[in-house]
Amino acid sequence: MTTPDDDAPKPACPICGKPVVPAHKPFCSKRCADVDLQRWLGGHYAIPGREDDALGRDDGSHEE
Ligand SMILES: [Zn+2]
């Protein structure tokens, strides 16, 4: 009945869904962190003529 482990939400790697490793937060491994990075960089250059340009840019309105 006493399972404090169950109380804490367990973050999952956004890439593969495995449990997150603190050392590689918010990913489960360096590999997944790399994959995400590649997606990020790749996505920026791989998408031809995105409509986002017409909407203007987010100038550092990062909420958190
Ligand atoms: Zn992962």
UniProtKB/TrEMBL annotation:
Subunit: Interacts with GyrB.
Species whose genome carries this gene: Methylobacterium aquaticum
Alphabetical list of InterPro entries matching this protein: DNA_gyrase_inhibitor_YacG (IPR005584), Znf_NHR/GATA (IPR013088)
Superkingdom of origin: Bacteria
Function: Inhibits all the catalytic activities of DNA gyrase by preventing its interaction with DNA. Acts by binding directly to the C-terminal domain of GyrB, which probably disrupts DNA binding by the gyrase.
Keyword Signal: no
Record keywords, A-Z: Metal-binding, Zinc
Classification via Pfam families: YacG
Name of this protein: DNA gyrase inhibitor YacG
Gene3D superfamilies named among the record's database cross-references: Erythroid Transcription Factor GATA-1, subunit A
Cofactor(s) this protein requires: Zn(2+)
GO BP annotations listed: regulation of DNA-templated transcription
PANTHER family in the cross-refs: DNA GYRASE INHIBITOR YACG
Family per similarity comment: Belongs to the DNA gyrase inhibitor YacG family.
Annotated positions binding Zn(2+): C13, C16, C28, C32
Keyword Magnesium: no
Cofactor binding description: Binds 1 zinc ion.
GO molecular function: DNA topoisomerase type II (double strand cut, ATP-hydrolyzing) inhibitor activity; zinc ion binding
